[in-house]
């Protein structure tokens, strides 16, 4: 197998592997080994190409899902909570949405919470059997400062909480909308 192969020919290392493999005992001659090695090389190249394409698609899909999830996060959260509530027999689901966030997140509006509660009544066995599932949103109509006051009255350890959309190493960026709203909620004398 010392002859030279042209462009696109099998890698000599593959030929060595094939030559030393039990395939030879099946009666493959040198030409058949060359063809098999060439086919294997093409197959491996196609597999690598496919892996690169799939990696790119997965990355694009992940970015799209994350962008969409941020915009419809409450739908996903409530759907999962609804499935759990149905199997656990719970009568209430609590969610921490706030109407002040509705300009960027329509699923933080009171109308959305009411509509999802109606959906729960139509889409669950409990709802169909007349056992109403309630969606509770205790922060819905509070100001950011009101949320901070409520949290303080409940003893929330604020140093362990994070509102940032773009945290780095567990720390808030201080620049995103969520950080600015949080800062405003902690400002002395703030009422909105």
Set down the secondary structure blueprint.
Layout (H helix, E strand, L loop, with lengths): L11 H8 L10 H42 L1 H16 L3 E3 L15 H14 L1 H4 L5 E3 L7 H10 L23 H10 L6
Parallel strand pairs: 1-2
Helix pairs in contact: 1-2, 6-7
Describe it.
This protein is mainly alpha-helical and 192 residues long. Among the domains are: 12-68; 142-192, no CATH class. It is built from 7 helices and 2 strands. Strands 1-2 form a two-stranded parallel sheet. Helix 1 packs across helix 2 (30-71) and helix 6 crosses helix 7.
What summary fits the major beta sheet?
Answer: 2 strands, parallel
Query: Averaged pLDDT, please?
Result: 80
Number of strands: 2
Name the shape in a single word.
elongated
Biggest sheet, strands in spatial order? 1-2
Distance from first to last alpha carbon: 81 Å
Task: Enumerate the spans where pLDDT stays under 50 for 5 or more consecutive residues.
Answer: 1-6
Radius of gyration: 30 Å
Query: Which percent bin holds the helix content?
Result: 40-55%
* Content of β-strand: under 5%
What order do the helices and strands follow?
HHHEHHEHH
What labels would you give this structure?
192 residues; 7 helices; mainly alpha; two-stranded parallel sheet
Structure in a nutshell:
The protein is mainly α. It has helices spanning 12-19, 30-71, 73-88, 110-123, 125-128, 144-153, 177-186; strands at residues 92-94, 134-136.
